[in-house]
Write a structure and sequence with these properties.
Layout (H helix, E strand, L loop, with lengths): L2 E11 L5 E11 L3 E5 L6 H8 L7 E6 L2 E2 L2 H4 L2 H10 E4 L12 H11 L4 H14 L15 H13 L5 E5 L7 H16 L3 E5 L12 E5 L5 E6 H5 L2 H6 L4
Helix pairs in contact: 4-5, 4-6
C-alpha cells in the first residue's frame, strides 16, 4: 500500500478560539475506504475540509501524496489545480457547490478550468451523466432539482475531474432510501476501481459494506479509536458511551 495522507499533531481552532481538532494523527493509504464517525461537533467536518485544503491547521503538518500542504502551497494556482485534480470534496450541503445555469455546465465547470478541449469535455460529462443516471437532468437548472438530484449533480461535478481521492461529508443527509442505496453502491464501485474513499457519516445502516476501517472522534475533538469497521461498529457499549448511538 502507498501512504497517501499523513496528518501529524493537527490542531485547528476557530477565530472565536473554540477548538475543532485536537492533536489529530492519521495515516491513510491509497485505495482505502475509511468512515469517520463521532458525535455532532466532534470535528469530522472540519477534518474533511482540512484534508481538502479548505482550512489550514493552527498547528501540525499535513502531507498529501508526498507534498506538504501549506497555506503558501495552496495560494499557488499551479499547485492548487494539481491538488484538486487529485482530491475531490462533496459537501454536506450540495447547494453550496451548485452555481451554474444548467446541469451540463455545472459538471463541465471544473474540467473547463483545466483548459480541456471541448470535445473531451463533452465526452467526460456524457460518461458521468450516464454513470450517475442523470442524463435527463442535463439541461435542467440545478436550483429546481430535488435534494437527491442535487446531490448526484454535486457528486458528478467532482467525479468528472477523475480524482484519486473522494471525500464525502455526511453524504446521506436529506436523501430518500433509494438515493441512499444508489450512493452506497456508487461508493463501493468507485473504491473497487481503486479510488480512495473518505466519508464522515451518522447513517450507519446505509454504509454497511462500504468501509473496512473506521476512525472515531470524541466530543473532545480528537481521535479515540481507529480500526476494523465491523469490530468497532459492533461494540455497542463503546458507541453508546461516546454518544454515537
Amino acid at each position: 500500500m502507498i501512504l497517501l495522507i499523513k496528518l501529524k499533531n493537527i490542531y485547528y481552532s476557530y477565530d472565536s478560539g473554540a477548538i475543532a481538532l485536537k492533536d489529530v494523527n492519521l495515516e491513510i493509504d491509497s485505495g482505502e475506504a475509511v468512515a469517520f464517525i463521532g458525535p455532532n461537533g466532534s470535528g469530522k467536518s472540519t477534518l474533511m475540509k482540512l484534508i481538502n485544503g479548505l482550512v489550514n491547521p493552527s498547528r501540525g503538518s499535513y502531507n498529501f501524496d508526498g507534498s506538504d500542504i501549506t497555506l503558501k502551497q495552496l495560494k499557488s494556482d499551479m499547485f492548487l489545480k494539481m491538488f484538486h485534480k487529485k482530491i475531490g470534496f462533496v459537501f454536506q450541503n450540495s447547494e453550496v457547490q451548485l452555481f451554474c445555469a444548467n446541469v451540463y455546465d455545472e459538471i463541465a465547470f471544473g474540467i473547463r478550468q483545466m483548459n480541456m478541449l471541448e470535445d473531451e469535455v463533452q465526452k467526460r460529462v456524457g460518461d458521468i451523466l450516464n454513470l450517475l443516471q442523470i442524463e435527463d437532468l442535463k439541461h435542467r437548472q440545478p436550483y429546481h432539482l430535488s435534494g437527491g438530484e442535487k446531490r448526484k449533480v454535486a457528486i458528478a461535478s467532482v467525479l468528472v475531474m477523475n480524482p484519486e481521492v473522494l471525500v464525502f461529508d455526511e453524504p446521506m443527509n436529506g436523501l430518500d432510501p433509494q438515493a441512499k442505496r444508489f450512493l452506497k453502491e456508487l461508493m463501493i464501485t468507485l473504491n473497487k476501481a481503486g479510488k480512495t474513499i473518505l466519508c464522515s457519516t451518522h447513517d450507519f445502516e446505509y454504509v454497511k459494506g462500504v468501509f473496512k476501517r473506521v476512525v472515531v472522534f470524541s466530543k473532545d475533538h480528537t481521535i479515540i479509536r481507529d480500526g476494523d469497521y465491523k469490530e468497532i461498529m459492533e461494540d455497542n457499549e463503546f458507541l453508546f458511551h461516546n454518544n454515537i448511538i
